[in-house]
Design brief:
The protein is built from 16 helices and 21 strands. With 528 residues, it is α/β, with parallel strands linked by helices.
């Protein structure tokens, strides 16, 4: 279960859209307030992606819970698809919504202490503890159960929020190792680090292995340490694409790719031998945006000029000592030495053991215990992660993407439920089945006609993921979210030459002019 903070939030929202896309921004500013962002500038491309900038802020406290189970049938109702006819106003000047830490008054402080006294055993934390979190590998946008392995973005962010207000937590010790997630998730975690610092508590980072993503997070900490043998890989950024066109040509396979939209590059890997002009343009703009954002944020955090930081990266590969000389890290220390420094911060004797609580244990502490519970009204959070398919296949697992029929059941159940006053649709999807996307969009529109619905975009909300968001009244995203709809594509393989090479023959008897469009794999889409 996840709940919005009672403390006021303000957020600056900007969107990065791929070319040939349109995004309506409007309405319901009071429901969502946790995704601040920045305005992005583009250094190259004659046709840059569209950038929109809007803001949202809350005016009412809500209790938010993540919606997991589903059932029930929906009613077929007509929906007016014009936002303005539903009272949605465009071009509204919303507040910025930046996080502001406010200390509790004496009454709330008393209640929090009382709640901690009666807390269940697994929610008890010794006073003066340090919260330790190890960020590495894949970070999921889904909530994790106590029996699940891996990291959960919602739980990471919630732990930062709870620790800021929890009087038992003195600070955070953050281990950061190679991450396997998109830049939008990294941006969101970094923002929560900065928000936590407003509490006045310390946050110390430790980086045994560090690339651009890891350093982007780590440099936001008050202090940053690395062991003498640390791997620092700040070499710059690249984007690459591979092509199988030449390979298929040699074996006699002809990929038949049909697309609408010149920037739709999904089929290029199969059909081309090199990158198209449009794909190169698009990837160049995205790379410029991400790299420019990295240089800007890091230089601002470390008090350096962007030019100086860029020169440092371009001058070569350095030993760890050079990073200390350039004030990019605080000092060179082993993990046990950093723990000794934390003891000094807390004025503990060297023979005393530092009280530490890890990420998994602290995730069990409820927001209610630390005084961050919401109001009586509930918001349902529907998390849609992964590729989109219409039905579950026999080989699919419970975590194998977005299953259209199950998603629709959740939407219908929430629409008919009186418990939920509004809905946040959290999207982290590159798209998938077009039919499933359209059916889900319809159900989202039906839901939006009865309750306020806001789409929140994570790492990616492209194609079908973007299509789903179009059914909502308002959309928020990180500045580095990849989103938009740039076309559609379909493909098949013409195996005629391959069959000739291996001596295989296949004959088809058909009725109907187009009966063999998909059935005949030894023929192209079009016959000359």
């Amino acid at each position: 279960m996840s709940k919005l903070l009672q403390t006021p939030h303000r957020c600056n929202i900007s969107f990065l859209l791929l070319a040939d896309s349109f995004l309506p921004i409007s309405s319901k500013p009071s429901l969502f307030s946790t995704l601040p962002s920045r305005t992005v500038t583009y250094s190259r491309s004659s046709r840059p992606p569209l950038l929109l900038n809007r803001s949202f802020a809350p005016s009412k406290k809500f209790l938010v819970r993540a919606f997991e189970s589903s059932s029930s049938d929906g009613k077929n109702e007509s929906v007016d698809t014009d936002p303005e006819s539903r009272g949605v106003k465009r071009n509204v000047d919303f507040p910025t919504g930046e996080f502001q830490f406010k200390e509790f008054g004496w009454w709330m402080t008393f209640l929090v202490k009382l709640r901690m006294l009666i807390a269940l055993p697994w929610q008890r934390v010794p006073k003066g503890s340090v919260l330790t979190m190890k960020l590495r590998g894949q970070i999921s946008d889904q909530l994790k159960s106590r029996f699940s392995s891996g990291l959960s973005l919602p739980q990471i962010c919630e732990n930062f929020e709870k620790a800021a207000y929890d009087p038992r937590i003195s600070g955070i010790y953050l281990h950061i190792e190679p991450l396997n997630c998109g830049w939008a998730k990294v941006e969101e975690i970094r923002r929560h680090i900065l928000n936590f610092k407003q509490s006045g508590k310390f946050i110390v980072g430790y980086v045994p292995a560090c690339g651009e993503k890891e350093y982007y997070l780590a440099c936001a900490c008050d202090e940053l340490y690395a062991p003498p043998s640390a791997y620092f890989s700040l070499y710059g950024m690249t984007v690459q694409a591979s092509f199988l066109g030449g390979l298929f040509e040699k074996v006699g396979v002809e990929p038949q790719v049909e697309r609408i939209g010149k920037y739709k590059s999904a089929g290029d890997q199969l059909s081309r031998k090199s990158m198209s002009t449009e794909n190169c343009e698009m990837l160049t703009v995205l790379l410029d945006n991400i790299y420019g954002n990295w240089l800007e944020k890091v230089s601002l955090t470390k008090g350096k000029k962007i030019k100086d930081l860029e020169n440092f990266i371009n001058e070569g590969v350095y030993q760890v000592e050079r990073f200390k000389e350039e004030d990019l890290i605080t000092n060179i220390c082993y993990d046990d030495e950093v723990i000794s420094l934390l003891k000094d911060k807390l004025k503990l004797q060297s023979d005393k053991k530092l009280s530490m609580v890890d990420y998994r244990k602290y995730s069990k502490v409820s927001k209610w215990t630390v005084g961050l519970s919401g109001g009586k009204d509930r918001i349902a959070i529907i998390r849609a992660s992964g590729s989109i398919s219409r039905v579950r296949s026999p080989l699919s697992t419970p975590s194998s993407g977005i299953i259209g029929e199950q998603f629709i059941e959740k939407i219908r159940m929430i629409r008919e439920s009186k418990k939920f006053k509004a809905v946040i649709l959290r999207i982290d999807s590159p798209g998938g089945d077009a039919l499933a996307s359209d059916l889900m969009w319809r159900e989202i529109r039906l839901l939006a006609a009865e309750k306020p619905v806001i789409a929140s975009m994570s790492d990616v909300a492209a194609s079908g993921g973007y299509y789903m968001a179009m059914g909502t009244a308002a959309i928020v995203a990180e500045s580095l979210t990849l989103t938009g709809s740039i076309g559609v594509v379909t493909a098949k393989f013409n195996l005629e030459k391959l069959y000739e090479k291996i001596g295989f023959n296949k004959e088809i008897i058909s009725r109907g002019k187009y009966a063999e469009v998909n059935a005949a794999d030894q023929r192209p889409f079009r016959l000359s």
